[in-house]
Specification:
Strand order of the largest sheet: 5-4-1-9-10-11
Largest sheet: 6 strands, parallel
Radius of gyration: 20 Å
Shape: elongated
Structural class: alpha/beta
Helix content: 25-40%
Length: about 290
Amino acid sequence: MILQKFVHVITRKIANPFPMSKRPISDYNEFQKIIGQAQNIVALTGAGVSAESGIPVFRGAGGLWRTHRATDLATPTAFKANPALVWEFYHYRREVAFSCQPNNAHKALAKYEKLCKEQGRQFWVITQNVDGLHKRAGSENILELHGCLEKVICTKCRHIDVNRESPICEALRGRGDPAKADETLPIIPLNELPKCSKCKGLVRPYIVWFGENLDPDVLDKSRDLVETCDLCLVIGTSSVVYPAAMFAPMVAERGKPVAEFNLNEDPFDDGFCFHFSGPCGTTLPKALGVDLQ
C-alpha cells in the first residue's frame, strides 16, 4: 500500500514538478489558526532538530567517523565483520547523545502534545532520529522509525533491553572518540563486548541499519497516522530518506496542509502550504504559540 502511494506521488511530481498551488508562506498567524483547528497532527522530525542540540549529522558530506564513512559502519555486514569497531562507533554516538540536551524544538513539541491531550486532540511525533531527545523533552506519542541508541537487541535470542549505562561495558570505556583515537590499542575481544541481560549473547545497537527493513509495526502505525492526519509538520529533515520522505507528500496529495520547518530558504515541495526558514528551535515554538519559560 505504501509503495503504491509512493509511486503515485513520485509520478505526480515527475508529470507536474511545479503544481499550480499557492507558494509556501511564512504566515505565523494563519498557521496558528489552522493548527488550532486540527484534530489529528503528525510531526515528522529529522537530523536538523537534533543538530541544534549538538548531535553530529553523519549523513552526507563530511559524515566521517575517524577515517570511516558512517554509512559503511551502519550495516549488518560491517557488524559481522568487525563488531568491536562498530560498537566503538556506536559507543561514541551513545555518549554524545546522552550528554546532549533537548533544545527548544523538542520542548515545544512536547508542550504542544500535552496541550493537545488536554483538548482531546491527537499529536504524534514520527522521528528518523535515534538519540531519544524527544522522549527526554517530555513527548510521549513517539514513533522511532530507525530505532534508538538507548536500546540494544540480542543477536542470539532477540531480547530487547533499554540500556543507558555509560560506558555500556567496561571494555568500551574511553573508546570511540574520533578526536582521541589510538590506533595502537588492541581490538576489543568479542567476549568483552556488550552482552544480553537474558542469555548473555552478543547484543548490537537497536538501530535499523542500511539494508534492513523498518519494524513493520512501527511502519504500519506511521502509515495509519499519515493517512488520517489533518495537518503534517515536517521539521529539520531533508526529505530524502525513504519511506519517511514520502509521508508529507502523501498528506499534501490528500489536500491537507503541510508545514515545513527547515534551515533551507527554499521549500522541499511547492505543494506544502507553509515554509518556515530558520533554526527549528526558534521558528517552531513561535509557530506553535507555546511559552517555554
